[in-house]
From TrEMBL:
It comes from the Eukaryota. It comes from Plectus sambesii. This is Reverse transcriptase domain-containing protein.
Length: 239
């Protein structure tokens, strides 16, 4: 990861730390002037750092919105919310409870879904290592990881060793029709959009899923797409 501050600025910071040991009046004046110089150098270093980020993003055709998040100083923290009754909650427990209740109500489905049990003959064949490897290579990189901190880059880098292990894991999920504990859980972060920051409706939730769980859904999705392609009549080949 590239440093934001130049070597010269780091030297000035070290010099200020050394000069603060001397508490004489002359030394305090020198430290005061040095602080002004350091602030000026930091602003210059940050401008150069931001320019290099934007320039590199434009050369690689990356999203400038993502670059803005990378160069931002600090993060907006959710420290209080206004409840439906008008009261303000500030504790972590109350914030989590209010957020959970709001989005559960927002995304709750009222549609009735009929469930039909499948016969044993309808069981899917086991996943093949080639299918898992193909799905893994199709997954996008540069995404924020789940709480386990496993990234797509890690799996791709060690795919020769990990694909057989992942294939056995996914086939176990397929056989028992259940995923390991917490594998299907998600970690939700809230991104402020605009408006009143005390109201949850002004936040956009982003769910971070386990990379291994996303790999499982990717393999299944590839299966479904393959079945649909084979079922499509020749008359609709161009659609």
């Amino acid at each position: 990861k590239k440093k934001r501050l130049s070597t010269n600025t780091e030297h000035l910071l070290l010099l200020r730390r050394t000069m603060k040991i001397d508490e004489s009046a002359r030394s305090r004046i020198k430290v005061f002037e040095l602080c002004k110089l350091i602030r000026k150098e930091i602003r210059k270093d940050l401008c150069i750092h931001h320019f290099n980020h934007v320039n590199k993003a434009m050369q690689n055709s990356r999203s400038l919105r993502k670059v803005r998040g990378e160069v931002a100083t600090g993060k907006r923290r959710l420290i209080q919310l206004r409840l439906d009754d008008g009261t303000i909650c500030t504790t972590v427990e109350d914030l989590n409870k209010a957020t959970k209740a709001f989005f559960e109500k927002l995304y709750a489905s009222t549609a009735e879904v009929e469930f039909h049990a499948h016969s044993p003959e309808d069981c899917c064949p086991p996943f093949l290592p080639e299918e898992v490897r193909s799905a893994l290579m199709q997954m996008k990189t540069g995404k924020a990881p789940y709480n386990d901190h496993i990234t797509t880059e890690m799996l791709k880098h060690g795919h020769e060793t990990l694909v057989p292990v992942l294939t056995r894991l996914l086939n176990t999920c397929l056989t028992w029709q259940v995923t390991p504990k917490h594998m299907a859980d998600s970690s939700t972060i809230l991104l402020f959009k605009k408006g009143d920051p005390l109201q949850l409706k002004n936040y956009r939730p982003i769910s971070l899923l386990s990379i291994i769980y996303k790999l499982l859904t990717k393999v299944v999705n590839n299966w479904i797409e393959h079945i649909f392609d084979e079922s499509q009549p020749l008359e609709q080949a161009d659609f």
